[in-house]
Write the structure tokens for this entry.
Amino acid sequence: QVSLVESGGGLVQAGGSLRISCVASGRTLSRYVMGWFRQAPGKEREFAAAVSWYSGSTQYADSVKGRFTVSRDNAKNTMYLQMNSLKPEDTAVYYCAADNSYSITTTQADYDYWGQGTQVTVSS
């Protein structure tokens, strides 16, 4: 069992930056992929970014590529999402998820564990 807790969400103006975190506990993450998904009001949840804990490789959705950076801190069992040049359309609840796999997937159903989410609101 893996427990995931997100933090760091908040209100930011368009063009600003925010970093959100996800702390994992319960198991070693060495063979997990950790992902960030987001759900905007009235829309389905979508993939944003992911990192392989084993290799450090990353993958991004086209909508955030070049603006968001996903990273991990092995010692702290923590994943981060640094969000720059934020846009109002980035407003969403951001969820952390863990997939027991070495290969990154963007498919929600492949992820085994989920956090409770953290709200990010970008004002225009």
